[in-house]
Design goal:
8 helices, 26% strand, nine-stranded mixed β-sheet, binds uracil
C-alpha cells in the first residue's frame, strides 16, 4: 500500500504482514486534525476511545488505518489516509479528471470529493459503462493497472455477429492487432449463443476489447465493465451512482500489493 502517502504525512508506519501497515492510535486520531496528540492521550486515559468495541488502553497501541473501526465517545472516526470510490460509469462521460470541452465522471461526485483530487483508475471509453474506481491512492492505482500484477478486468461485450470457439482460441493465444499491438492472452466466454461475451484482460490498452473483437470480425455494439481484480460492480448501484468501498473491499485490494 502507499508508503509514500504515509511518509508524506509524516507518519511512522509499521508493517504487519501482507500489505497491512500499523500505526499508533494516538497518531492516527491526531492526524485527523480533530484533536491534538495531547488531547488524544487524555481521551484514551478517560476510556473514551474504542477499537472494534473494546476500549483502547494505551496511546501506543497500533491499528491499521484502513480498517481500524475506531470510535471516540461512540462516534466512528475515519482514519484512512485515502479515499476509494466505486462508480457505476454511465455512457457519455469521459474517464478523466477534467476536460476543456466535455463532461467527466468527476462531475458525478460531490465538491468535497472533487477537491480531494480523486482520479479514475484506468480509462473506460466514453460510451463504455460499468465499474470505475476513483481514488487519491496513486500506488494502488499503479498496482491495479500494471500487467505484471495480473489483475483481471472483466467486460461484458455485445457484438455484431456471433463469437465462437475460434475467437476463444484467438484471444487465448494473444492477438497481434493490425498496428502491431501485441496483446497478452485474454479470456473469452461466449454468452447468449455468441451474441454477447465476457472478455477478461490483464492489461488496458486503448480500445482494447473493441479492437480485438473488431479484428475477429465481431464489432462491439456495447461494452460494460463488471469487475477489476477482487472488486465487482455493486449491482445496487444504478448508472451514475457511486459509493465508498467497504473495509472488506479495501482489504481485498490491498492484498494485490
Ligand atoms: N476496452 C475497450 O475497447 N474500451 C474500454 O472502455 C475498455 C476496454
Amino acid at each position: 500500500m502507499n508508503m509514500r502517502g504515509f511518509a508524506a504525512a509524516g507518519r511512522s508506519v509499521h508493517t504487519a504482514g501482507e500489505g497491512v501497515h500499523l500505526e499508533r492510535i494516538d497518531k492516527l486520531l491526531g492526524s485527523t486534525g480533530r484533536w491534538s496528540r495531547r488531547e488524544v492521550k487524555e481521551l484514551i486515559r478517560q476510556g473514551r476511545v474504542q477499537r472494534g468495541g473494546a476500549p483502547v488502553l494505551r496511546p501506543e497501541e497500533k491499528a491499521d488505518p484502513e480498517t481500524a473501526s475506531l470510535t471516540v465517545d461512540g462516534q466512528a472516526v475515519d482514519c484512512s489516509p485515502f479515499v476509494y470510490v466505486m462508480l457505476h460509469k454511465p455512457a457519455g462521460l469521459l474517464s478523466a479528471r477534467s476536460d476543456s470541452s466535455q463532461p467527466t465522471v468527476l462531475e458525478l461526485l460531490p465538491p468535497e470529493l472533487k477537491r480531494r483530487g480523486l482520479f479514475p483508475v484506468g480509462r473506460l471509453d466514453k460510451d463504455t459503462t460499468g465499474l470505475l474506481l476513483l481514488t487519491d491512492d496513486g500506488d494502488l492505482a499503479h498496482q491495479l493497472l500494471s500487467p505484471k500484477k495480473h489483475v483481471d478486468k472483466v467486460y461484458l461485450a455485445r457484438v455484431e455477429g456471433r463469437v465462437d470457439q475460434s475467437d476463444v482460441q484467438a484471444l487465448a493465444a494473444g492477438m497481434v492487432l493490425e498496428d502491431g499491438l501485441r496483446c497478452l492472452p485474454a479470456g473469452l466466454e461466449p454468452l447468449e449463443e455468441g451474441r454477447a461475451c465476457l472478455v477478461t484482460l490483464r492489461e488496458g490498452k486503448y480500445h482494447q476489447v473493441k479492437r480485438m473483437l473488431a479484428a475477429r470480425g465481431k464489432p462491439v455494439t456495447s461494452l460494460h465493465r463488471l469487475s477489476m481484480g477482487p472488486l465487482a460492480l455493486d449491482e445496487a448501484l444504478k448508472p451514475g451512482k457511486w459509493r465508498f468501498l467497504t473495509p472488506r473491499e479495501r482489504v481485498e485490494l490491498r492484498r494485490l500489493g
